[in-house]
Design brief:
alpha/beta, about 350 residues, five-stranded parallel beta sheet, Rossmann fold, 2 domains
Length: about 350
């Protein structure tokens, strides 16, 4: 049965959801919720899809818990695939922009329910009624000009296998956040996957560079620990670690702890390789891993729950601020330069004989 509003929320925000639901109904706005359904069942999935298809708009209640909710993310993604962005009304219930607002809604106007509920509910009612009125009385559409060939071929499609796309995404996040925001609707469905695999690439690249250097005989004084593992063995280890880390990160927030275990194991391997070269390099590589974790958190919307939380969440906060202001901060530029310099330093050390000067 068609209805005006589909309410998306975390179970931990049920009390506020019910209050909003009741107040909307008082204003003659029909509301659909999943309260009568059993979560996770086939019928639940089917009825949610049907409800979103039949709704006039979606109200999503934002909080740290809803940002971590896999089902809220799925509902939001499905709704955005069915409705233009202006049909989704975000409601900020708890938390802040950093820990409650998903990246795809960072620029969408929100109704703040955290302090003044009466004012907020009136704003929400007014916005929904205006939207319903616009649907009932559509304005005449201006006939658009046909797109030329260059316009129709400009759809952006990022690939996890293309290093250029990885660098493009990094450049947008750290240096040109406005460019990222301009394209975010085109790449919204790819963000979670790209974030997981980009983070995995950044994590394991510092280990892959020494492996290549050793295999080509460019590093002759030192061996990769342990000594009894051959070059093909190390290649297999690195590639498998990259796949596992990317796969775990792409599964969802519930598996982020397992991803962190792999991440920390990779850090220990990297430290074991470079420890005999230079202590500062070890610190630099640990910082690089923190940057990789921060990028992953921003793009996947996960929360850090293990070691390295301070550095990882710090980088994530810098990137979220970039996206909110659409400007790159000085600290953001500094982090990006440090990241690129770290990889270039590794290439110089392991591929171009730099190890001779620091050994």
């Amino acid at each position: 049965m068609p209805h005006h509003v589909f309410l998306s929320y975390s179970r931990k925000d049920t009390a506020l959801m019910q209050r909003i639901r009741d107040d909307l109904r008082v204003h003659q706005i029909t509301v659909w919720t999943d309260e009568a359904l059993t979560p996770g069942t086939d019928s639940w999935n089917r009825e949610i899809e049907e409800a979103i298809q039949e709704t006039k708009c979606v109200v999503v209640i934002l909080s740290p818990d809803s940002k971590q909710s896999e089902w809220v993310s799925r509902e939001l993604a499905y709704a955005r695939s069915r409705h233009p962005a202006h049909r989704i009304f975000p409601v900020l219930a708890r938390g802040s922009e950093t820990d409650a607002v998903p990246i795809e809604l960072i620029r969408t106007q929100r109704v703040d329910f955290r302090t003044d509920y009466p004012t907020a509910i009136q704003q929400l009612v007014d916005s929904i009624n205006k939207h319903l009125n616009d649907l009932a009385n559509p304005q005449p559409k201006i006939k658009s000009q046909p797109l030329d060939q260059t316009q129709t071929t400009n759809a952006l499609n990022l690939s996890i296998w293309n290093p250029r796309d990885h660098f493009k995404l990094l450049w947008w996040l750290f240096i040109q956040p406005k460019q990222f925001q301009n394209h975010r609707y085109q790449i919204a469905s790819q963000l979670k996957q790209m974030g997981a695999w980009l983070g995995s690439t950044l994590i394991w690249l510092p280990l892959f560079i020494p492996v290549i250097g050793k295999s080509l005989g460019l590093v002759v004084q030192y061996a990769l620990p342990p000594l009894n593992i051959s070059f093909p063995g190390w290649c297999i280890i690195v590639v498998l670690a990259w796949i596992i880390t990317g796969f775990f990160g792409n599964l969802g927030q519930k598996t982020i702890n397992r991803m962190a275990v792999v991440l920390m194991g990779g850090m220990l391997l990297i430290v074991a390789i470079v420890i005999e070269y230079n202590f500062m390099m070890v610190i630099g590589l640990i910082a690089t891993l923190g940057i990789a974790g921060g990028v992953n958190l921003v793009l996947t919307g996960a929360e850090p729950r293990s070691m390295g939380v301070g550095l990882i969440s710090g980088v994530a906060n810098v990137l979220n601020k970039n996206l909110a202001t659409q400007r790159s901060s000085f600290l953001s530029k500094l982090i990006f330069i440090f990241l690129i310099f770290s990889y270039m330093a590794l290439i110089y050390i392991y591929w171009f004989g730099g190890w001779r000067y620091i050994a």
